[in-house]
Design brief:
With 183 residues, the protein is mainly α. The protein folds into 2 domains: 95 residues, Rna Polymerase Sigma Factor, Chain: A; 76 residues, Arc Repressor Mutant, subunit A (Orthogonal Bundle). It is elongated, with a radius of gyration of 19 Å. The mean pLDDT is 82.
């Protein structure tokens, strides 16, 4: 938790930035850029992390007039980063899909195994895309990025119990979707 003086100073910077003060926003960026970048890398990997972080900070600047202060600025900025990561990941998935399949075919122990793995990944991506946004977030943060339940709860603004329940339900839903797809 930040000391009250730091929170007050940050609220002042946010208010000035909402009035169009670019220097105030620059200070907010300086304070939060490392956290935004780290989160972006965790969500999309190092190749896209810098792009996602930059895009999130640009989106935050554009959305700043609508920031109501219901949550802390850092929580709001994290939410924008997560949403930007999902958007960027969807875009990148379209471009990477063919490269991924080529890599699997080239490096697999056998063409049959590589084909099975490519099919499983395709089915899994499609099933994850069919999850609700809340379920998709916990699955990606936990199973893809390796976050703890506590980290997920903090990031999504939910309790650890809720994070665990969402993850359990999401995994059951994924299993059902994969079984449905296989039949």
């Amino acid at each position: 938790m930040k000391p009250a003086s730091v929170q007050g100073e940050e609220r002042e910077l946010v208010a000035r930035a909402q009035q169009g003060d670019r220097d105030a926003y620059g200070e907010l960026v300086r304070r939060h850029q490392d956290t935004v970048y780290t989160l972006a890398v965790r969500l999309v990997g190092p190749d896209l992390g810098a792009d996602v972080a930059q895009e999130a900070l640009i989106r935050a600047w554009r959305a700043l007039p609508r920031f109501r202060g219901d949550a802390s600025f850092s929580t709001w900025l994290h939410r924008i980063t997560v949403n930007t990561a999902w958007t960027q990941r969807k875009r990148a998935a379209r471009h990477v899909a063919s490269e991924l399949e080529e890599t699997l075919v080239d490096t697999g122990p056998s063409p049959e195994h590589a084909g099975e793995m490519a099919d499983l990944r395709r089915r899994l991506k499609a099933a994850i895309a069919r999850l609700s946004p809340g379920q998709r977030a916990v699955v990606v943060l936990r199973d893809v990025s390796g976050w703890s339940h506590a980290e997920i709860a903090r990031e999504l603004g939910i309790t650890q119990t809720t994070a665990k329940v969402r993850l359990h339900r999401a995994r059951k839903r994924l299993q059902a979707l994969l079984e449905e797809d296989a039949s």
